[in-house]
Design brief:
eight-stranded mixed beta sheet, UDP N-Acetylglucosamine Acyltransferase, domain 1, nine-stranded mixed beta sheet, Spore Coat Polysaccharide Biosynthesis Protein SpsA, Chain A, 11 helices, single chain, alpha/beta
């Protein structure tokens, strides 16, 4: 087999994403819109394709309709290249009637589907992280070291490792200890990177640990053996159980990586894209990020003041002021509106003039944002309808649920998908 045909890629897309609520109220995490025109799942899929691995399984479970629709519309492979994205949802079988109970359980229950394809290695990726990785490098290292399992790891300052799996790595990159999400400062300090390994990395003023990125390479036989039990999770159970029994190595990644785990992390990762030199560069022609080709018209920006703004396709923005914003596809903004630190996801369709007129006559705002609105530090989910003279900001307000499907979470105001906010509303 060629190198690319020795690898199967498995993307984990089944988590509930409770910390990302309300963005996950009607969709799973990998289906959450990103950067004006993408979805989170486009990132790992594009990393695989750009690395030469086009045999991809996507394991899904919760609120899958939006994700499945996006995949089916976006990714079509040349029949002569033998590439595919196979959607594998949790299903009842003669052996099990339950949902996936964890990452390892999800992979275990799909081994028969993987085994129908020739392969030597399985590359397991998360479906909700923002990063760009040449996956061939971790595969090459895995083969060169003769590893049974290779875990992608990123150097993280000790002050920021909360909620991450940490590992002790020897100078030859072999792993001697793995602790899932430690909280004890003494344990964390005991897992800091050795001086001999630290000097090989980009310099940092703070002590660091190597944190698991949730990206694994398993040799085929080892994966089958590691899952011949009832363990449910890779980080909590499978990886620690393999220590001392299998050859575990770390692959150190020093690029940009963001685990989009919370509303605040999602919000800040999006706004970071408005920087002149963003930490994640969608303009890298050597490794493009692929998504649904919608064939939308270019956006129309009429008499606006714009500062550090990303604008998706097919938007109409008139006489407005935008500062540090991400404006998603098909967004419509009325005159004299002011946005500051706003992520607007846009809409799934355009309305006709007759539909807009009928909405106003019925007392319901049309899709988009009306005139004279003031919105700050907010996420406006898809297909939201915001009337005229609306003012929204989370400043001075507690996290919680508010009228008209508005939620404040992590200090960020979220207008839920499909919300209708009447004219004159202030929060």
């Amino acid at each position: 087999m060629s190198d690319s045909k020795r690898v199967l890629a498995v993307i984990m897309g089944g988590g509930r994403g409770t910390r990302l609520y309300p963005l996950t109220k009607e969709r799973c995490k990998p289906a959450v819109p990103l950067a004006g025109k993408y979805r989170l799942v486009d990132i790992p899929i594009s990393n695989c394709i750009n690395s030469g691995y086009n045999r991809i399984f996507l394991l899904t479970q919760f609120l899958t309709a939006s994700l499945h629709r996006h995949i089916n519309k976006s990714f079509h492979f040349d029949p002569f290249g033998a590439g595919f994205i196979d959607l594998l949802s949790a299903e009842q079988t003669n052996l099990s009637t339950s949902w996936y109970e964890g990452t390892a359980d999800a992979v275990r229950r799909n081994l028969e589907h993987f085994n129908a394809h020739a392969h030597d290695y399985v590359l397991i990726l998360s479906g909700d992280q923002l990063y760009r990785m040449d996956c061939q490098k971790i595969i090459d290292q895995h083969v060169a070291t003769g590893a049974d399992v290779t875990i992608a790891a990123i150097p993280f300052p000790v002050s920021k490792v909360e909620g991450l799996g940490l590992m002790r790595v020897n100078d030859d990159l072999s792993i001697s200890e793995f602790v899932e999400k430690p909280k004890d400062p003494a344990v964390i300090n005991s897992l800091t990177i050795s001086p001999a390994l630290e000097v090989k990395l980009e310099p940092c003023s703070e002590k660091r640990c190597l944190a698991s990125m949730g990206i694994y390479v398993f040799s085929r036989k080892v994966l089958q053996q590691a899952l011949a039990n009832d363990m449910k999770d890779f980080g909590k159970e499978v990886i620690p159980a393999l220590l001392g029994k299998a050859k575990l190595f770390s692959h150190i990644f020093e690029g940009y990586w963001e685990d989009i785990g919370t509303v605040r992390a999602f919000f800040e990762a999006n706004l970071a894209l408005t920087h002149p030199l963003p930490p994640f560069n969608f303009f890298d022609r050597s490794a493009p990020i692929y998504t649904h080709a919608r064939y939308l018209p270019a956006s129309k920006i009429n008499r606006c003041t714009i500062d550090h703004v990303v604008i998706g396709d097919g938007c109409i923005v008139t006489d407005s002021t935008l500062r540090r914003c991400v404006i998603g596809i098909r967004s419509v903004l009325g005159e004299n509106s002011h946005f500051e630190d706003v992520v607007m996801m846009g809409a799934d369709y355009y309305q006709t003039k007759a539909e807009v007129k009928a909405d106003w006559e019925s007392g319901r705002p049309p899709l988009g944002v009306g005139r004279n609105c003031r919105i700050k530090r907010a996420i406006i989910d898809k297909n939201a309808r915001i009337g005229d003279n609306v003012s929204l900001s989370p400043e001075g307000k507690a996290d919680g649920d508010y009228p008209h499907n508005v939620v404040i979470r992590d200090g960020i105001l979220c207008v839920c998908k499909g919300a209708v906010i009447p004219s004159g509303f202030t929060l």
